[in-house]
Each structure stands twice: as C-alpha cells, then as structure tokens.
Amino acid sequence: MEFLGVLVAAVASFAFGAFYYGALSKPWMEASGVPIGEDGKPVGASNPVPYIVSFICILLVAGMMRHAFAMAGIASVGKGAIGGLGIGLFFIAPWIFLNTGYSARPWKLAVIDSGYAVATGLICGIVLTLI
Prior knowledge:
Blueprint: H1 2-23, H2 25-32, H3 49-72, H4 77-102, H5 107-130
Helix pairs in contact: 1-3, 1-5, 2-5, 4-5
C-alpha cells in the first residue's frame, strides 16, 4: 500500500506541475532564459527526457517523504499537510533560492519554482496520509 501512495502522490504532483507551469509558462520562460521557438514554446519541448527525469525526482521525494512520515508517526491528513508544507517551505524552497542566487538567475525564477515545491510538498503530504 505504501508504494501505491507514493506513486499516486507523484502522479498528483506531476499533474499539478503541468497546470502550475502551464499557468506561469510566460514568466517562467522569461525568468529561466529558456530559448523560445517561433511557436512560443521552449525549444526542445517535445523532448521527453526532462519530463521523465522530473517524474523520477518527484517519485524519489514522495518516497522519502513517505519514509519520513512513517518514522515520525505522521498518519493524519492534517499532520501530513503540515509535514509536506514544511518540507516544501523549509527544505526544498531554500535550496532552490540558494541555487538560483549562485547561478545569477532572476529571483523571480526562484519564487516560481519554490511555489511549485511548496505546493507539491503539501499535495504529497496530503496524498500520502490518505492512501
């Protein structure tokens, strides 16, 4: 049952990412400096590798969150939501800001990417405690 919860959490987070980055595609592309083709989409957007790698990464995070939740005895939806939110807000988002700062990229990019990390931490925390 644990693997199913991890898989569903990863799928939910990946699906949210499609919506989130779809809604913020223009500011994200501008801030990230990704080359844009004549069609208005990032060059190489049809390459499946980044999507596969991102799903694997989300799966790894969800798996580790499940493990941490089990060790901490987090089983209720409320505690899962707080735990996931905390992981996104206090572990992942600061790392994104750190990497953004040292790579001399716009802070707007860190805000957008961190928003996704915080939201998906919350989503994973909720899903992991529901399944």
